[in-house]
Amino acid sequence: MNTMVEETVGQLIKRIREEKGLSQNKLAKLSGIDRSYISQLESGKRVTSISLKTARALSSALKVQPEIFLSDDKTPIELPPKSIDNLFEEFKQKFEALEMIEVPIKGYIPAGYPCIKEEGNLGFAYVAKESVKMVPQPQALYALLVQGESLIGDQIFPGDRLLVKPQSEVDVQGKIYICRIGNECTAKHVSATPEGRYRLKATNDHFEDLEPSELEILGRALRNLGKDTEL
Prior knowledge:
Shape: elongated
Number of domains: 2
Helix content: 10-25%
Strand order of the largest sheet: 4-3-5-6-10-7-8-9
Mean pLDDT: 82
Number of strands: 10
Oligomer: single chain
Strand content: 25-35%
Largest sheet: 8 strands, mixed
CATH class of the largest domain: Mainly Beta
CATH topology of the largest domain: Umud Fragment, subunit A
């Protein structure tokens, strides 16, 4: 069924974007147009019309004709009906975004003073497959339950689950890593010092920075998955 609406160019862009299940960030990537400009267009702030170049970029990303974005009036705009192929592709994209992968929760990680990391089988966490598609070997990901309050400045609290990518080196300075100091483990922000050592930093002022003479990196925390209400 054809869709007839009376709307501005910004409202039209927003409607078509939402019908195709795209976020502003995704449309920005597909079209090469800055997300903040798309936001201004859709809200009608400062930008009320677009150039032919912008119309072509948006129409290519949204798979519509550029002419529908170039009308100077607010007459009703008729969109062509979606084909079966377009509907199937949209369904496929939405399904893939919802598809989840199972991540084992391997134990507890102290977020405080280093202590023995408790190992165990604590069930599974579930992560959207789309959200880790850029992670090499996502099947190797695991989760750890946080104990302690040294990362509360990151909004990471006791009982939260950290999604961890196994690795043995600090590849991005200042990120949160799972560290082993001797026989004890901790989760801290890690960065290199001018002396060639590593500084472990908390985001809770009650905990002092650490600069251990020996340090083993076990993995990097990718994100906080929050709490599982079933635990």
